[in-house]
Amino acid sequence: MNIETNIVWKKLSVDLELLNTEDPNSLIPLAASLNSMLDSNMDLERTDRAINFMTYELIARAEEYSEWDRFQILNDYFFDHKQFQISGPNNSVMPEHHLLLEPVLKNKTGHALPLAMLYQHFANHLDLPIYLVNMSSMMIMKWVRSGKSSFVHLLEHGKLLDSESLTQLIQAEKSLENKDSDSCVDILPNRSIFENYITALLRSSKENGRSGTQLTLLNVLLVLNPHCLESLAHRGLLQQRLGHTREALLDFKKYLSFVELESAPLPVQTAFRQLQTMNELNQGIPKDETIH
């Protein structure tokens, strides 16, 4: 890790700890910092400038207008003027340029999550309390209005959903994800949104065989959720494939402090036994050492 990347990583680690503050404007800067770690060609300052310019342009257009008019201005700007469009739902595997902010801003096309984060970012700068809700498509936003909330469908250019359409979406979500009706329309916490974003990037990097990117993303996921056993096992297996014997064994030891070896997935059992045998031969790692 070079000095510049190390600085970004340290800042990112601090920002990840602040995700619990639920500032709706914290996600885009966080995503931009992560993107700059994943793609050395990305210019973080250029991305920040582009987003800031659009934010100020929107604020100038919407100044002194009513809440409803600001909502219309946001949709006109986002979908008609800038012509942003979603290229696919959250659960689909997307190429990286549909997930990273700089190419999404340039091409105006992207995965549902970065566009939802951008829409939420712009909305809240216009004093529109619009937030992503707990639906797997990551295309439905909740506009918290006095007296009654409205729901915005990003795939339909910010159209407000009528009660029948919303009910149909909720029923479909319940059957697919085994959720209750209320949880489907709950506002998704920043931490969950960012975990979903990292997971989408992880699917893309795995599809493209980018092991270094996968490792960075797993490191970030485990900062967000240190006890996520799936991520811990995934990172251990990846570390082993990369030849990082010591790090892999430490990940597996931490994983197996929560799960019995016989209950672990077969690849984890096999990898751990291989590494343990190597460790006994080489006497390279103290048995009680753990990774954080």
How would you sum up this structure, described in words?
This protein is an alpha+beta fold and 292 residues long. It has 2 domains: 3-184, no CATH class; 226-282, no CATH class. It has 13 helices and 6 strands. The strands form 2 sheets. Strands 3-4-5-6 form a 4-stranded antiparallel sheet, covered by helices on one side. Strands 1-2 form a two-stranded parallel sheet. Strand 1, helix 5 and strand 2 form a beta-alpha-beta unit.
Topology:
Elements: H1 3-17, H2 27-38, H3 44-62, H4 67-81, E1 85-88, H5 101-107, E2 109-111, H6 112-125, E3 130-132, E4 140-143, E5 150-153, E6 159-160, H7 163-177, H8 181-184, H9 190-207, H10 211-224, H11 229-241, H12 245-255, H13 266-282
Overall tally of domains: 2
Coarse shape: globular
Low-confidence stretches: none
Order of helices and strands: HHHHEHEHEEEEHHHHHHH
Helix content: 55-70%
Give me the side-by-side strand order of the main sheet.
3-4-5-6
Report the strand count: 6
Largest sheet: 4 strands, antiparallel
* N-end to C-end Cα span: 18 Å
Structural class: alpha+beta
The amount of beta strand, in percent, is: 5-15%
Gyration radius over CA: 21 Å
Mean pLDDT metric:
87
Count of DSSP-assigned helices: 13
